[in-house]
Amino acid sequence: MAQTQGQNPRDVKQSQTNQSVPVQPPLYGSYQSGSSVPRPYPGAAQSSAATQAPAIVHNESPAMRFSKAFIVAVAIWILITGLVQSMVITAHRHHRYGGVSTHYPIPSDVFLDRCITSEEWSRDLSSHIADFPSLDAYLPPSAFPYTSKTTFSLPLSSDVLFLLSRGPLSSGSVDIVTSSEEGEAVKVDVVVKYFREHVRDISNVCLVSRKDGEIGIGIFSPEWANHHRIEDQLYFEVVVSLPRTSNGKPLLINRFETDVLNTPHRIGDLSKSVIFQSIDLKGSNAPIYAKSIRAHNANIHTSNGPIQGIFNTSHSLVLETSNSPIRVQIGMTNDKDGPASEVTLHSTNGAVESDISLMSTSKKGGTFNVKSRTSNGPLRVNFLASPIDSTLHLNGKTSNNVAEISLDTSYEGKFLLKTSNHAATLRKRRDVEDPRGQERKRTVNYKSTRGTIVGDVHWSNDSKAEGTVRVVTSNSPVVLDL
């Protein structure tokens, strides 16, 4: 049966029908027959008050009484000292190990199918002496002296493949790569680095599922009642290996998701060998690096870490972080008979810089919506190519930093540049050739006022292009290259 939220995954289910009735204690002063109750020594019961000898009184010297009192005091002091030391040791152990809660932050829609036991970890016998700073800080993988490993297999036929981590000790790294081996399953290797086996075993690595057709790997560690020490940390290295197809065509994956805390992502060069219908990568406080990804829909989210790489999509692409830059190359392909293709780039307090190539399945036409936004960082968007007769809607915004946009010469439509306390600049290319090869002349009209430029660009007087470009910043220059 599925594990409920917050329950210790290793608790064993107990039968509710096999309960024993507690034995009642005997009444005070009674005993059972046959019991070994000591009997009085023969003749002891015959004595009486009338036949007892008079008590003999011994007079003790003051020195003797002092010695007895001193011995009793020393004995009491020893007992109290031992009790205090025992309490201190117990409290220290509780601080180091007993502060672990039995609550595991498992989402309510996640079911634990099988969790790795202590005996199932394959141990790497190579170890080294830990070298870590005395200050409480997160450690690099090389600082951990011990390593254990386990492997899972996830069927490619699943509707959703996912990786999930929760808890203060569940951070690490995620690598998504291609394998040289053929197969019908995704191999997931989980390596845990640690100082203490006890801490490794209180965390759980499990095969998990959600609703029908959704299967994945979950890494869960319990909440700590006290602040854990530096040697109580763990580091999980997860490697997801995608198999090669037997026919040499790209592997098709319906949906792949990660939701891992304090964990960087590293994605290999997947675009030539893997196509995702949908891929959602979610981290926090860490970067996401992608050599190349090819997907119909891609959502990439992190915080306090950069997003870098090559992303090829057809329907939608969302890249979002905070307090860090986004530096990417994007290829966006649109079907002119379908809905618009969407690109959203969003950061705060970091640069957003992108090179974008717009393409159409029919080599011309298509509709593209691009939103690029940040604050307190430079905004740069460079359109390397766009289809003839395509429509582009661009909305770019930043603050307190420069905004620079470069459009492909195929662009036709309106544009607006706006800033405050600085100049807006339009730069027109000379000797631009007609992208249709029909020797048409390009017309650029614009009006400039303080900090604002409004205008339009067309390749013929009868152009029906409806593109729009809007770029806004503050306290810095705004520049458009046509």
From TrEMBL:
> Compositional bias (Polar residues) at which positions?
1-22
Q: Where are the transmembrane segments?
A: 69-88
Going by the UniProt record, its keywords in alphabetical order are: Membrane, Transmembrane, Transmembrane helix
According to the UniProt record, where is the region Disordered? Answer: 1-45
Note the InterPro entries from the entry. DUF7330 (IPR055754)
One matching Pfam family is: DUF7330
Q: Enumerate the spans annotated as DUF7330 domain.
A: 300-428
Protein name per the record: DUF7330 domain-containing protein
